[in-house]
Amino acid sequence: MNKNVLGLYASILVCANGVAQQGQKDATQVTQLQEVVVSDSRFELKRENSGKTVVKIDSAQLQRYQGKNVTEIINTISGIEISGSRGREGSVFGVYARGGRGRQVLILIDGIRVSDPSSLSADYDLRLLSAASIESIEIIKGAASTLYGTNAATAVINITTKKASKKAIAATVMSSMGTNQTADDQNYNISRSSNSVQVSGTLDKFDYSGSFSNRYAEGLSDIITATNEKDGFSHFATDLRLGYRFSDKLNLSVYGNQTKARTDFDESFGFLDAPYRFISKQERVGLAAIYDYGKGSLQANAAYSSYDSDSQSAFPSSYKGNNYVVDVYHKYNFNDKFYSIVGLNYLADETDFSSKQKFEITDPYVNVVYVTDFGLNLNVGGRLNNHTEYGSNFVYNINPSFTLKMDGSYLKLLTSYATSYITPSLTQLFGNFGANPDLKPEDDRTLEGGIEFAHDDANLRVSALYFNRKEENFVYWDLVGNGYANAENTIDAQGVEVELGWKASKKLNFGANYTFTERKGDNAIRIPKHKVNANVGYALSPKTFASLGYSLTGSRTDTDFASYPTVDVPLDSFSLVDLYLSHECIDNKLRIFLNASNILNEEYTEVLGFTTRGRNIMLGFNLNL
Predict the structure, then answer these.
(1) Rounded to an integer, what distance in angstroms lies between the CA atom of residue 308 and that of residue 261?
(2) Which residues 6+ apart lie within 8 Å of 435 measured at CB?
(3) What local confidence, expressed as pLDDT, does residue 21 receive?
(4) pLDDT under 70: residue ranges of the chain
């Protein structure tokens, strides 16, 4: 590591003057009870009028995770397990929400679906996301295909990127560096870094934002071997957004993104060190337009994405895919009680196999929300899915809730029944191995019921929810037929999610969640039956903040691919403790932070045969210009 860089960090550490900036003050506060939620209805509704327990990680909360990647942040949410997020940088093995699989989770960036049509399940590689560019993360759990279409079966993760500053010009620089080591090799070498810079501003009706970020890591082997040769990871992302407000009613913005990632990996068959490498490139351009006329608005979002992946291994392969999305919808607010949305969504995926293959989806949809004076809230919608290969199918949601308002508090009872679908991927329909063009979409249905209590004066919110989910017609690899097929059996998953948020005082706040998940119908690997996350934050002074995080991942099973025939083996539960410290050095300008993960240096297995991180420390700063 360059000595000048180390000197800069050392100089930053000794700063002691200044007053805490507003962002740091916000970091000591929990979200207010009257927070607005959007994702579950696409309308700005008070949380008490929403029929879902939507989870939102805002910018103040994201500050506490600086030094961590996106998968580590999302993994703190109830009902979600991201296997590989605790391993070396660049390892992501699956996103499991409510006992489901990665293909059942939809990722949105600024409201637009992102997915890689060249991948096996047409899901999105979370390694391509940069935490530095994110303003907030809003998560809906449960079936949401009515509003968001295919893949929205167990969760929708909506990533909102940072917007332009209101100043004529402003810049933000973030940088961190730290260790990347296992529990039994605490060498404390600097082998992990993250850097980003954003320049943005507003000039009358024109606004702009440009950013660059990179992440780099080395020092860990992908797989646990006798020699544990180091496998590196690098990530570079560039974003540009331009906007123009033509009038008080009409606003238009265009944007572009390019991301490149390189991940070194080993031979998983036999668990051997190998000089393998996976290189991925994503390019995305799009536009967003809104015409707002008071009671209603007409909005249009469109994006084009290309994916280019190259796997350099014993069996080299390359993949290219293109994705087109257009979503046009009209929102209307009749009287602050009745809201409606009518839209049309177009999606096209294409990729190259022996020849170019493509499918298209055209879905009209409608959703209405009714908020009564006596506490009843109703969210109802439907979507007609039209696919060029398998035809049409209809999905819908019914989501009533009842809110009992009291002095400074409310008690909300909620329930919902929703269906969703997952279209077969291009690989499954037309790929080079085992393709089946007669595949039907997977059908999912989810039943939920829960309760939420919030008290404004006590700054307290607690909720509990039960879910029951059924998967039918899911696509699997048929060993007998040596190809993809729709399963005749069903998968049943059920569970309980409990969440607590409490701001005990101006200085002290506490948050916790617990998840119980049970999946029946297959081997349910890597899905913990019990999971706990907790965090306590305390303002040591007006300019110094500290928080302590705890996570418990319960026992689960994983498949031992080193044996023949393969067998499933149990994995022990484990718990981790993290520490975050921040200090404001220069008023509204400079803040330093320290993020220490697994401070008790716990040894554990997350994915069978793969490396996990021990105690690690990240040190960094935020500079606002």
Answers:
(1) 11
(2) 427, 428, 429, 483, 484
(3) 36
(4) 1-40
Helix (H) or strand (E) holding 419: strand 409-422
Helix (H, G, I), strand (E, B) or coil at 132: helix
What's the CA gap between 91 and 75, in Å, rounded?
14
Task: Name the nearest CA neighbour of 457 among 59, 33, 77, 41.
Answer: 33
CA 87 to chain centre: 17
State whether residue 540 is helix, strand or coil.
strand
> Nearest CA to 385 among 355, 359, 352?
359
3-class state of residue 481 by DSSP: coil
> What's the pLDDT at 39?
62
Confidence (pLDDT) at 43: 73
226: CB partners within 8 A, 6+ apart: none
Conformation bin of residue 598: beta by default, left when phi > 0, alpha when psi is -120 to 50: left
Question: Which positions ≥6 away from 439 have C-beta within 8 Å?
Answer: 389, 390, 424, 428, 429, 475, 484, 485, 486
The position carrying tokens 């170019």 is 356
Q: What one-letter code names the amino acid at 30?
A: V
CA gap 457, 105 in Å, rounded: 36
Structure tokens at 444: 């999912």
What are the structure tokens assigned to 247, written together? 């009038």
Residue 344: what pLDDT? 98
CB-CB contact of 537 with 546 (8 Å):
yes
Return the residue matching tokens 């699997």.
476
Residue 78 and residue 81: Cα distance in Å, rounded?
8
Of 237, 238, 240, nearest in space to 164 by CA: 240
Write down the pLDDT at residue 523.
87
pLDDT tens across 188-205, in order?
A: 999 999 999 999 999 999
Q: With beta carbons less than 8 A apart as the criterion, state whether 404 and 372 touch.
A: no
User: What kind and span of H or E run contains 7?
Assistant: helix 3-13
Phi and psi angles of residue 63, each rounded to the nearest 5 degrees, phi first: -60, -35
Burial class of residue 34 (count of CB atoms within 10 Å of its CB; 0-12, 13-18, 19+): exposed
What's the pLDDT at 8?
39
Strands 231-245 and 155-161: unpaired
The DSSP 8-state label assigned to residue 459 in this structure reads T
What is 313-348 written as a DSSP string? SSS-EEEEEEEEEEEEEEEEESSSSEEEEEEEEEEE
The predicted pLDDT at position 34 comes to 54
Cα distance between residue 122 and residue 107, in whole Å:
11
Residue 74 DSSP SS3: helix
How much is the pLDDT for 38? 63
Contact 457, 408 (CB under 8 A): yes
User: Rounded to an integer, what is the distance from CA 440 to the centroid of its chain?
Assistant: 27
Cα separation, 577 vs 593, in Å, equals 17
- Assess whether the previous peptide bond of 275 is cis (omega < 30° from 0): no
